[in-house]
Amino acid sequence: MSDALPIEVTSPTPLLELRGISKEFPGVKALDDVSFAVYPGEVHMLLGENGAGKSSLMKVLCGAYRADAGEFYYKGETVAINSTADAQKLGIAVIFQEFSLVPHLDIAQNIFLGREPKGRIPGTIDRRKILADAKRVLGTIGFDIDPSTTVDKLGVAQQQMVEIAKAISQDARILVMDEPTAALSDRETELLFALIARLKADGVSIVYISHRMAEVFALGDRITVLRDGRRIDGVRPADVTPDQLVRMMVGRNVDMTYPRHFTDKPGELLLEVKGLTAPTGISDINIEVRRGEIVGLCGLVGSGRSEVARAIFGADPVTSGQIIFDGKSISGEPDLAARRGIALIPESRKSEGLALLRSVSDNLVVSALRKLFPSGLFDQRRAQRTADGLIRQLRIATPSARQTVGLLSGGNQQKVVIGKWLAAGSKLFIFDEPTRGIDIGAKSEIFALIDRLVAEGAAALMISSEQVEICHVCDRAYVMREGRIAGHLTRSELTEENIVRLGMHHA
Amino acid sequence: MTDITKDAIAPPRSFLSQDAIQVFYRLLAALLICAVLAVLSDSFLSLGNILNVLRQASLTFFIASGLTLVVLTAGLDLSVGANVALSACIAGTVIHTTGSPALGILTGLACGGIVGLLNGIMVTALRIPSFIATYGMLWVLNGLTYWYMAGETLHGFPAGFRQIGSGYLFGLPIPVYLLLVFLGIGTFFAQRTVWGQEIYAIGANPVAARLSGIPVARRLLLVYAVSGTMAGLASIIFLSRLNSAEADIGESLTLPAIAAVLIGGTSLFGGVGTVFGTFIGALILTLVLNGMNLLSVSANWQPLVTGVIVILAVWLDMKTRRRAQ
Prior knowledge:
The structure holds two protein chains of two kinds. Chain A is 34% helix and 24% strand.
């Protein structure tokens, strides 16, 4: 068996092994003869572009999808995973990016949801026992918090801890984590890594999906690369370089440098924000964006970056201050801002950017309806042609413009969100975490696209937690701290250290 | 490179849209019911009976068509029946006092429209969930109508006015012509106008619709106002057909209208459905009730049968659409 895996491993028998897994959807072969093994106590990184099959493999693992073909072995024995219950029995638990916690229940109730210890009176819950049990489980993962706290009071990182505690309480031996650090700060990431080390020491295996190269090398014991639904290779971190991994993922040489053509003379002033204050917690914001510029908006998560974006777009009310766009003052709802030429590419594209059940075509033309059909009469064929043009221009991977947008991969969904504003002919593009959850190939494409937009006279305001991106792509950047602009960095001052220094809380 | 291979392995799924397929299923179901009734009852296929079915269906359809737009935005309008009653009583009074049917018709439409607009304001400006806002409106309208009519019945309207609900033109009842006109207008509005597209987008994801630059509040106002105005139109046809108006004429109208919308394949979660589907829904509902009459099944069974059809229709809808989640 170890012939199949050219890697020496500590334990000869994998805890769980998948062989020849295939899964097909109408029009797409999501998994094609994929084999995959998890050994006890290892961190197994799963790499691949969006649409490579990582999510499908994860869903097969946890029983959410039923494989069309393939075999499962648990400690060498043949098993079947036909349902989530089967997977749970084998000790497989998944921490999805979107948590499955009930917000208004407390931590203990969430951990033991559906498995509550029964009280003496039938139908009641033994409150004392559930709290004690929760305390104990939280203790094993080193999370010191009162288990009677309701989940909606917790931050993202803490909710993740509760998810992990829930999995551990179900005796999970294999923990699948889908981009667990995507929404975490650096400090929170460190805590998570420490927890992963602890779980490893206890013999828990971790399947870790990531788009961050640094994590792959810092955490991974082994790496499996998927591309187009196939397993490309299994390697050890010590044996590869990041560049080699990227080449495996994309199957072509991707220019990892950020495609940006800087010019020395920015165009005319497009957006001027003066003393903007809003009840969402931002105050006295002053920002200028010129045509041809990409301006960064940095700061920690929660420093008010998204709130500034939403206020400029009219999505949230404003207390005082002025927003001047293209020479005219602007205030009102998003439809006004959109009509004047402002585009918002929101942080959560699934819930705020797209109508997931509608077609690619419907989503691509939704912001341009008024521009494409000034008479008010809608023409499906014209909409389709416009959509087809954008699909080609943005290289959106979809079987057709009629495809339901929810079935596309993350990177392609993001291209649809950007595409709808291209169709609308927007002049200022406000990007809120444009590359979150997007693979390297698509990231590069999206930056090339932003570069082309501003070269053609548009402007961009870009929020990103990836400081590397800001440094490579932006002409200059504002750094926010606690709802205010803490400083401004010109191109020559724009370094990760400066961003961190300005964005940090000073006690 | 990868993109090209993906394009190659995945041809377009189908030339018919999901909506077209769903409407097709329903047409088949309606035809099937017709076939069964034609076999079971000699009088079903008589011209008189068929025209009667169409006229009945048209009354349900007028209310249900406006309601369809509301449901497409993931809302609900429970006040349509009560709105019909109030509008009919006010329109009737205007005709009696002024002697002008035209003025009465305008008043009925206006009354319905204003009620709808008030619903829209509650939903958008006050952010009250539509289910609750229109449920409250139902009681308010009932209260107003009962107070206004004080137990009286209005009856006896000019012969010309009565033609609207009970007259014939080239052998077809006039409501059937109106049905065709409003079916055409409704379908055109929903499928072929920018406003229609925006309504679908709002129903599919209201947050994304707003952040895509759609004036969500204004479109919702429009949708509720249209629903109210269609109730106003229905009130005129009722008034003309019954030749009388009482405070309680609306009480049995709302639930069948909702049934027609649901049988017609419009999802209560919004964003999915068609006005044409609602027409078929109204037709199916009327056909079944008509069949029960012809077969001398007690009217007591009608609510039960309606309920079963609604549940069956929605369940089949979910079964056939499931792959697109």
